[in-house]
Write a structure and sequence with these properties.
With about 425 residues, this protein is an alpha+beta fold. The chain has 15 helices and 17 strands. It is elongated and about 95 Å long. The relative contact order is 0.12.
RNA sequence: GCCGGGAUAGGCUAGCUUGGUUAGACUAGGGGACUGUGGAUCCCCUGACUCGGGUUCAAAUCUCGGUCCCGGCCCCA
């Protein structure tokens, strides 16, 4: 027997229906925020992902040569493809460009709870915020828009337990650069700070010639955690900037987020505000959403534009909702048409076809079963109604409509079936 | 890449400690008993020891390795 490859899954009909249901909820939220959907290839020129990545990214990239000797990689995330798409085909569109996408990504990692090698992301990007308000090019309203949508998406899953934390990587980058950390070693320091591994970060920075006082100041900054009031301790533009983000979130009715200037995220291309959301119901892999503001387009040969984006880990947030006890009841089909006797089979097919033309999901017995077995099958495929086609009623152009939930039945003229079935929805 | 726990029909499992019948039950699936009414009862049928090597007269059972799953570490763009 051949199984799915490690870290991949099959989605059976009930599971798939559930996934589509939530997926469409996310689409709905994105559309109500004025975003439009896009799709990019599942594989790309490997360079797109290698350009700005470190060794860890490469290690987990599904990369290979195709038959034409091209270097190809399965996408490990979708921000880079989205920005490539912007540079290739949307760079002259009116800004800001608001797009969203849903699809699978691939990373060669060790699978564990909430982590798969093929996983699904729902993401959105606001590309090119016009009228930069601050010298780093970003606008608080843009960032607030992204966070507000992320919050709405989490709510769309009905998640009760979650937290959203907002930070700013620009201030931290600036601070460690000013303190004397060389640009090419900033990532090492940021990684320790992200994990709050101070006892490891201190000797590292000392070695780079950072003074003890500066180190303490940097640690203090990453310890800026709490409600929006902690921003009072943050001097200069960043404090002012994040306060504005918070004000816009409040205006939009988004519950007050936590501030955590220690949120560093992937240390790659983020330049300003960064945020993440986690669901404690999950275990080790509890992050369900992450994003921030960045510039990436100039790397792919476009002009430099300021953008903000985020992605929701679809599999994880679904898992979190399940762990909170949420149930999704599959809808199944509307009607199952069966004939009482063999001479009614043509008539049954005719009625099923009529229902289908009316937009009702209808199945018909194609297995030649006797009535009792056909009803049992109808119940198993979660049909809400059985349409029983018998000679007796057919003399008057009617059939028996049986409510599979209650067992109630009535005789309905064939022409009235669609209305009767729809009525009860 | 590292540490730990697992794997018996589609699903849930008994058997494994102490090697020895035809690997048992429940459920699901197919057919029938019931010739116009399902989720009831009964009968019949289909269907499994994760894979490979080793020990042994004999392996689901002991042993080694691979694969996959689960939990954690690392990482998480």
């Amino acid at each position: 027997m051949i199984q799915c490859p490690r870290g991949t899954r099959d989605f059976l009909p009930d599971e798939m229906e559930k996934r589509r249901f939530y997926e469409n909820r996310l689409r709905h939220v994105a559309l109500t925020f004025g975003f439009r959907e896009v799709e990019t290839p599942i594989f790309e020129d490997a360079e797109l992902f290698i350009l700005r990545s470190g060794p860890n990214v490469l290690k987990e990239l599904y990369a290979f040569k195709d038959k034409g000797d091209r270097d190809i990689a399965l996408r490990p995330e979708m921000t880079a493809p989205a920005v490539r798409m912007f540079v290739n085909g949307m760079s002259n569109d009116p800004k800001p460009i608001k797009i969203f996408y849903f699809g699978q990504c691939f990373r060669y990692e060790r699978p564990q709870s909430g982590r798969y090698r093929e996983f699904f992301q729902f993401g959105a990007e606001i590309i090119g915020s016009a009228n930069p308000e601050y010298k780093n090019g970003a606008r608080p309203e843009t960032d607030a828009e992204a966070i507000a949508m992320a919050a709405s998406m989490i709510k769309a899953f009905g998640l009760k337990e979650y937290r959203i934390r907002i930070g700013h990587i620009g201030v931290l980058r600036q601070r460690i650069a000013d303190a004397g950390v060389p640009a090419d070693r900033a990532a090492e320091v940021l990684q320790k700070l992200d994990k709050k591994l101070y006892e490891e970060a201190r000797p590292l920075m000392e070695e780079m010639g950072v003074s003890a006082a500066e180190i303490d100041g940097i640690f203090d900054l990453t310890e800026t955690v709490g409600g929006p009031e902690v921003l009072d301790k943050v001097p200069g533009e960043v404090g002012d900037y994040l306060r504005k983000v918070v004000s816009f979130l409040e205006a939009m009715g988004v519950e007050t987020p936590e501030i955590d200037l220690g949120v560093v995220r992937g240390l790659d291309y983020y330049t300003g505000m960064v945020f993440e959301a986690e669901a404690p119901a999950l275990g080790a892999e509890k992050q369900i959403c992450g994003g921030g503001s960045y510039t990436l387009s100039e790397l792919f040969g476009g002009e430099k534009v300021f953008s903000t984006g985020f992605a929701v880990g679809f599999d994880r947030i679904l898992l979190a909702a399940e762990k909170e006890g949420q149930e999704y009841v599959p809808r199944g089909i509307d009607a199952y048409v069966l004939s009482v006797t063999d001479d009614m089979r043509l008539k049954a097919a005719e009625i099923a076809a009529m229902l289908r033309r009316e937009g009702i999901s209808a199945d018909v017995d194609i297995a030649g079963r006797k009535m009792a077995k056909a009803l049992k099958y109808a119940s198993a495929v979660r049909a809400r109604y059985a349409v029983i086609v018998g000679a007796k009623e057919m003399e008057a152009g009617a059939a028996t409509l049986r409510d599979m939930g209650s067992g109630e039945q009535k005789t309905v003229e064939v022409g009235d079936l669609p209305r009767e079935i729809r009525q009860a929805q």
